[in-house]
Specification:
Helices cover 27% and strands 19% of the residues. The chain is α/β, with parallel strands linked by helices. Bound molecules: 6-phosphogluconic acid.
Amino acid sequence: MKLQVVETTEDAARAAAEELVGAARAGGHLALSGGSTPKRAYELAAELEPDWSAATVWWGDERCVPPDDARSNYRLAREALLDRLTQHPAVRRIEVEHGCEEAADLYDRQLGGQTLDLVLLGLGPDGHTASLFPDSPALAELGRRVVAGPPGLPPYVDRVTLTISALRAARRIVYLVTGREKAEVAERAFAGPPDPQTPASLVRSDRGETIAILDRAAAAAL
Ligand code: 6PG
């Protein structure tokens, strides 16, 4: 995998925004991430390109809360990106208001055989990515593209997540990781051996490139 180390958090957000915009302009299918890190990247992506009409937007994972809840990954992307666009993409959000298990079944069917052109991912302090937590049964799921399960870290609401095989089928995987507090886990995820205790170490594109965009602080142990 390729590491792209930039100086500041803002530089990292800009690099991720450029990735998103490139895929959106090309009419790609993109999967967005949750957490707090991508917010600035979403804002910059909307500034760089307000016309996303050619793109289709999916999510890598979702918290089982209503779409207007402050913990919703969809809400983050709506406020920071989608609401700021002049031309909107097709939006395929994970409809968790149907219940977590039902939403996972529905998303699995919706995703079908669709190839994702770009998947944006974050990295949790325990090594999780999307909602694939250390040693969780979801890591062993081979038959499904989407599963529901409990969280390993706050917020303690159930999650719906793409599985490792669904993520690995993407044409391009981009991790965005910033801050000194992620330095040790970034080393395990991007420079260590594949390890179910660090799920991000297992998620690499089988079809194309995997890159990690890190600011200088997050790259300190690499
Ligand atoms: C989620 C995520 C998750 C996130 C990491 C990093 O729904 O929580 O998609 O995988 O990307 O936990 O989160 P932060 O950006 O908040 O550190």
